[in-house]
Amino acid sequence: MSILQGQYTHNLPQIAYCAQEVKLHEEQAALNSGTTLSELMQRAGHALFELVRNRAVKNILIFTGKGNNAGDGFMLAKRCLHAQIHVTVCALFEPSLLKGDAAEAYQLFCRSGGRVVSLRSCIDHSYDAIVDAVFGTGFRGALPEPVKEAFNYFKSSKAWKLAVDIPSGVNGTTAEVSPDSFQADTTLTFIALKQGMLTGNAPNLCGELLLADLGIADAFAELSHTNCCYPGGKYLRSLRPVRAADSYKNQCGHVLLVGGGKGMAGAIRLAAEACLRTGAGLVSVATHPENQSAVLHGRYELMVHGVAVAAELEALLNKADVVVIGPGLGQDAWAKKMYAAVKKYQGLVVCDADGLNLLAQSHLPWHRAILTPHFGEAKRLLGNSTFNTSKRFEMAEQLSAEYAACIVLKGPGSLIVDGKRININRSGCSAMASAGMGDVLSGIIAGLLAQGLSRFEAATLGVYIHGLAAEQAARDGQLGTLASDLFVHIRGIMG
Known about the structure:
By secondary structure, the chain is α/β, with parallel strands linked by helices. It folds into 2 domains: about 230 residues, YjeF N-terminal domain (Rossmann fold, 3-Layer(aba) Sandwich), CATH 3.40.50.10260; about 260 residues, Ribokinase (UDP-N-acetylmuramoyl-L-alanine:D-glutamate ligase), CATH 3.40.1190. The chain has 19 helices and 19 strands. The strands form 2 sheets. A 12-stranded mixed beta sheet has the order 8-1-10-19-18-17-16-15-14-11-12-13, sandwiched between helices. Strand 17 and strand 18 form a beta hairpin. The radius of gyration is 26 Å and the shape is elongated.
């Protein structure tokens, strides 16, 4: 249901769209709702003004461009004038380039006593709010030099920075980010969420994300199509396995984790304990014989096997419901033998770390697998070093198609892609930039698979639990949070 006209919300929807999809259908959605694009611009200006007023802003600088985003900025500026807020509008493009509703918004601002100034006229003044109303949904490519110059002048300003719809420099469809993009503290986006704002470097530039649907959300949803979801915590928690009162361990799945080459016991131990904490009934580890006692020490619930040859591993594979391959595996002769044996396994597999690096050498499909690469591993899997780090949707979809697998492309706003379905994760924090975090994720996903979740569900819920556990662990301090600190929180989240 639509938010009241002119209002905004912190509660974001669970569906996201390409920016082009919003641009394509916004006018028809307005007409179907009994309104016009001109009225939508007024509503956008009102929502922006309510946000500014709630911040008790006294002195505001608004950068404007040459499209409808500028029109929203002029509507905000007009309202600020009427509220006796000191407003400075810096036009980064000639107002004569404005057309249609944006040109009318500019005229309304001027008739209210406002005027636009050059960048030179405003750089020596201080403001308590700076607003980016330059581009919006139409941005792609690189920022023009005058826009970069303006943003850089105020980059170090302590003022609250507000982006109108999308921070200028962020592509709302692809998540590509131009150098010197506007760094917002808050972004108020309109009509619907744009997928490119939710992953990669874009969330950092958006800051706090708010939505004003301008009263046309229902009409827009009827016209539009998307395969991209942004699932919330309430829905994701509903996917957690429910254990019957008379359950026993063999009903809760048996996971075999394969990894830990000579001298590398830590990663496989982290993955295995995460699997236990997620609720798997039985967890076995196949590791290099030299690591057996190290992996077992202090976690005696694990069944740890020192495996030297493929034949020994094959016997363990026959008993497993789910297999994890890769944490601490290495790429030596022993690792390649273990990998080759697992590649023949016909059940569900989670492949991470060196498992991905070995897979990248063959580029063979892996049906029934979940692959969990970070950006560098994704590039190796695609055999392509030309990808920009922001082209995350393209990378994840291509990986899913090429390997016939479910892909978890890790990073801020991790993408979970299985065929045409895309989920964007909304949990996590910077404390996750720590060794072993990926190993813990592999164990969580495997534990969920073992308890009966589908491939796509297990990957989506696993990534969410992983990020949420990290958020909770980091309450004691972002820096120095360890992967093993997540275990107690994983258990609590699983309930």
